[in-house]
Amino acid sequence: MKQDPVLADIDGLTVEVDGQVLVDRVGLRIRPGTVTALVGASGSGKTTTGLALLGEYPAGARVTGEVVVHGRIGFIPQHPASVLNPARRVGALLRDMARQQVRDLPRTRRRAAARQRVAEALADAQLPDAAELLRRYPHQLSGGQQQRVVLAQALLLGARVLVADEPTTGQDALTKRRVVDQLASVARRGIAVLLLSHDLDVVRELADEVVVMRGGRVVEKGPAHKVLENPVHPWTRELLAEPRTVPYAEEGRAGTEVLRVDGLVAHHGAGGSRVPVLRVAGLTLRTGECLAVVGRSGSGKTTLARCLAGLHRDHRGQVLLDGEPLPRSLRDRSREQLAAVQYVFQDARAAFDGHRPVLDQVARTAVRLRGAGREEATAEARRTLADLGLGDDLVRRLPGLLSGGELQRAALARALLARPRVLVCDEITSGLDPVTRRSLLDLLTVLVRQRDGLCVVLITHDLDTAAPATRIAVLDGGEVVEVGDREQILTAPRHPFTVALLRASTRRGSAVRP
Amino acid sequence: MKRPGRYAAGAAVAGVPLALAVLGPFFVGEPGARAASFTPGGGHWLGTDFVGRDVLDQVLLGGRPVVLVALAATALAYLVALPVGLVSALTHRRWLEETLMRPLDVLLAVPSLLMLLLVAAAFPPGAVGLALLVALVSVPDAARIVRAAAAEAASRPAVEALRMQGESWWRLAVGYVGRSILRTLAADAGIRLTGALYLVATAAFLGIGVAPDASDWAVMVDRNRAGLFIQPWAVVVPALLIVALTMGSNLLVDAAMEHRAPAGRTPRDRVRSEPAPRAPVPPRKGRRP
């Protein structure tokens, strides 16, 4: 053999469910020690292809084609907690697996050998403080740690191919960095990695081979440098397009003050373990502007958003709308106050009732908050949804039948029907692929520019998303470390944390340019 | 497809005692002259019981009190447990939650049969009283289940989104939370019904709430015990019917839950492949919906 042996070979794989083709004649070859990236928008068939390696198919699928695999396959799902038994400690989970492998040793040596294997797997998965970690339950670990425990399980089982599904989605820049290093070290050990991702920064850094998928088909594949630098297919080009830099709001249109945060201290926890997690001395929002709030996960940015919307009650200080203090809990806010400050949730799917059609749910805002009649509200909901690119047949369906991007638009429509003056968007683009994200942000731009006086608070961990905002507030450890116009923050940051954040983004090759 | 099979099994097992309980009384003939006690045959298909009545007639008559009281008790228990559980799950007022749930915890600590015996000794109940009593001892469990299930549903962003829309409490609690926990409640209602059947049958067996010669499956089991070896049918048939009712209702609830379970968890034998894609399957570590 001239080339490295092939560890996994997919040939002409077609997966159909109820006549709908999820994956159409996909071919893929995976060699040891390489990272193959499957890139594409959500719903492009990445996950179906990746799971085919594991012999997993959707319920009722018709499968044709061939999948040949040599050696074991490990799988790191997008939500690693879903594969860790919540009732058992991490150590027990790992030792169970190790014990299977040391069965043929003499009884006296099994225990030590199993322990040894677990320790090795943990070290390979780059889990420091292993001893302490083994005593914890999965829910006591951070998302990143859970991910590494699943990786350790795969390594323990001697996986030769690792399928990683969106390992960096929704993670901040510094966490992403660690995931990248970890996968790179796995590949160095000769394990083949199949990376399913729409995070192009990660793909750029890791991938040896790139396979671009769209609508279940492979539209382009080849060595990473070739595909990423000289994309041939127009879809690949669209996927690789630079993030937007045109500002969301028109420059110099910011008007009068709408919302002011005054001496806010928010707490988490209850009783004796109540800890302050956010301190904002003062923050002002003006009509027609877009304020981005940036920070790592756990920096308190979501808490800030929730305080504004009345979803987080446990805080001191005031949130003033037109100089009038807003009640802390939204249960005490009047209809007008509720309508004035609307909130769009990060997880659009979880924020919709799965049992009612999207259109009905969206229309309720106008009924409840503006006293519109049912007919009138439905008509307005339909118009607003259509403006956001959601057709009539789509919005009559139940939320489960819409994609994440579509649901996020519906969630925007639901908030807009209140005719809000302040729209708080909490990480609404995290978890979306670049193309969907761009179109959602374009919509937001249209909204800010068209709706007179609407002001948007954009909570994000992604500097690319924050860059086109009018002003940017940087949060770290529950404190606002810096607030300023975008120009100033992006070109002349004053606080060291802002500098670090900017550097982490630019090192990964993304374009943060004013 | 396995589901219709499970429905059929549940329906068949529970159907016989239910049909007997509901329709049985319509088929009972005039009570004839009493024969000798515990005689097999002799014009009586299932023989005679301890006072010489026709066992078949007794079986036809004896289901209704057991089933009705158990069903009424379960319904009553939920009538109380649902509002209590929902209110305490959805309120953010700690004291309200405590006021609602704490007394139930106390009730929970008392063994249900002991409670039944004690209250029955003080106030001998009738059928209605028995239903109330059984409902009372089922409430704490049911309320805790409702609250736990509802608390999970109430912490979802969908509830916050509904609040953001200014939806009424009723819409939140019943329209969303209530609907989301329906599956859990259906499963729990099945267990609750089984428990109620057990309690009602035990109470009847111990002679609480029923006359000693009442036409009642549980009473039959108790009273005809003496003749078990002479005329077994008078014990075996009602006992089997009670068992079938309990088992069948559990199977039905199971099947209903299976039916409502989200798609994507179907067994792999439904995946047809040609030619078979062969991948050695690692120990299953997770699947996505």
UniProtKB/TrEMBL annotation, chain A:
<dbReference type="InterPro" id="IPR027417">
    <property type="entry name" value="P-loop_NTPase"/>
</dbReference>
<keyword id="KW-0813">Transport</keyword>
<dbReference type="InterPro" id="IPR003593">
    <property type="entry name" value="AAA+_ATPase"/>
</dbReference>
<feature type="domain" description="ABC transporter">
    <location>
        <begin position="259"/>
        <end position="502"/>
    </location>
</feature>
<dbReference type="InterPro" id="IPR013563">
    <property type="entry name" value="Oligopep_ABC_C"/>
</dbReference>
<keyword id="KW-0547">Nucleotide-binding</keyword>
<protein>
    <submittedName>
        <fullName>Peptide/nickel transport system ATP-binding protein</fullName>
    </submittedName>
</protein>
<dbReference type="Pfam" id="PF00005">
    <property type="entry name" value="ABC_tran"/>
</dbReference>
<comment type="similarity">
    <text>Belongs to the ABC transporter superfamily.</text>
</comment>
<dbReference type="InterPro" id="IPR017871">
    <property type="entry name" value="ABC_transporter-like_CS"/>
</dbReference>
<keyword id="KW-0067">ATP-binding</keyword>
<dbReference type="GO" id="GO:0005524">
    <property type="term" value="F:ATP binding"/>
</dbReference>
<dbReference type="InterPro" id="IPR050319">
    <property type="entry name" value="ABC_transp_ATP-bind"/>
</dbReference>
<dbReference type="InterPro" id="IPR003439">
    <property type="entry name" value="ABC_transporter-like_ATP-bd"/>
</dbReference>
<dbReference type="Pfam" id="PF08352">
    <property type="entry name" value="oligo_HPY"/>
</dbReference>
<feature type="domain" description="ABC transporter">
    <location>
        <begin position="8"/>
        <end position="240"/>
    </location>
</feature>
TrEMBL record, chain B:
<keyword id="KW-1003">Cell membrane</keyword>
<keyword id="KW-0813">Transport</keyword>
<keyword id="KW-0812">Transmembrane</keyword>
<feature type="compositionally biased region" description="Basic and acidic residues">
    <location>
        <begin position="262"/>
        <end position="275"/>
    </location>
</feature>
<feature type="domain" description="ABC transmembrane type-1">
    <location>
        <begin position="63"/>
        <end position="253"/>
    </location>
</feature>
<feature type="region of interest" description="Disordered">
    <location>
        <begin position="262"/>
        <end position="289"/>
    </location>
</feature>
<feature type="transmembrane region" description="Helical">
    <location>
        <begin position="230"/>
        <end position="253"/>
    </location>
</feature>
<comment type="similarity">
    <text>Belongs to the binding-protein-dependent transport system permease family.</text>
</comment>
<dbReference type="InterPro" id="IPR050366">
    <property type="entry name" value="BP-dependent_transpt_permease"/>
</dbReference>
<dbReference type="Pfam" id="PF00528">
    <property type="entry name" value="BPD_transp_1"/>
</dbReference>
<protein>
    <submittedName>
        <fullName>Peptide/nickel transport system permease protein</fullName>
    </submittedName>
</protein>
<feature type="transmembrane region" description="Helical">
    <location>
        <begin position="103"/>
        <end position="123"/>
    </location>
</feature>
<dbReference type="InterPro" id="IPR035906">
    <property type="entry name" value="MetI-like_sf"/>
</dbReference>
<keyword id="KW-1133">Transmembrane helix</keyword>
<feature type="transmembrane region" description="Helical">
    <location>
        <begin position="129"/>
        <end position="146"/>
    </location>
</feature>
<dbReference type="InterPro" id="IPR000515">
    <property type="entry name" value="MetI-like"/>
</dbReference>
<feature type="transmembrane region" description="Helical">
    <location>
        <begin position="189"/>
        <end position="210"/>
    </location>
</feature>
<keyword id="KW-0472">Membrane</keyword>
<feature type="transmembrane region" description="Helical">
    <location>
        <begin position="66"/>
        <end position="91"/>
    </location>
</feature>
